[in-house]
Structures are given as structure tokens and as C-alpha cells.
Amino acid sequence: GKGKPGVCPFVRPVLCFAYEPPECQSDWECPERKKCCQGLCGIKCTDPV
User: Fold this and answer.
1) Nearest residue to 3 (alpha-carbon basis) of 26, 23, 37
2) pLDDT tens profile 10-49
3) By C-alpha distance, which of 45, 47, 37 is closest to 11?
4) Which of helix, strand or coil describes residue 48?
5) Are 24 and 44 in contact, with CB atoms under 8 Å apart?
6) What CATH code would you report for 1-9+16-49?
7) What is the dihedral of CA 12, 26, 46, 31, to 10 degrees?
8) How many C-beta atoms surround the C-beta of residue 27 within 10 A?
9) Which residues form the WAP domain (predicted)?
10) Phi, psi (5° rounding) for residue 39?
11) Mean pLDDT value of segment 2-17
12) DSSP per residue over 24-43, as a string?
């Protein structure tokens, strides 16, 4: 399925000691214009760039 418009911000790979549980599985689970994006240490609802 298609997500919301916009692209996820680029995330530099970092060494995570603990991965957080994902906040979302699709853009539609995120409020407003946020997208479901890979964050530094887990998947989060993130403002698109």
C-alpha cells in the first residue's frame, strides 16, 4: 500500500545498545502528516522531509 506523501529523513546507522519496540507499522498509524520511518534505534512516527 501507498504511504503518506514525503520521504523519511535519512538516518545515519548508529550502534544501538537496545532497539526500541516499533511505534508503528504503517504511515496511517501515525498522526497528521507523520510517516512510519526507521529511526536511530527503532521505527517511529517521524515528520517527513
Assistant:
1) 26
2) 998 889 999 899 999 999 999 999 999 999 999 999 999 9
3) 37
4) coil
5) yes
6) 4.10.75.10
7) -170
8) 21
9) 1-49
10) -100, -170
11) 92
12) -SSGGGSSTT-EEEE-SSSE
Per-residue pLDDT at 1: 57
> pTM value?
0.85
Burial level of 23, CB count in 10 A (0-12/13-18/19+)? middle
Domain boundaries, the chain: 1-9+16-49
Place of cell 512516527: 45
Query: How many whole angstroms separate alpha carbon 2 and alpha carbon 12?
Result: 25
Instruction: Give the Cα separation of 39 and 16 in Å (integer).
Output: 11
Question: How far apart are the two ends of the chain, measured CA to CA in Å?
Answer: 20
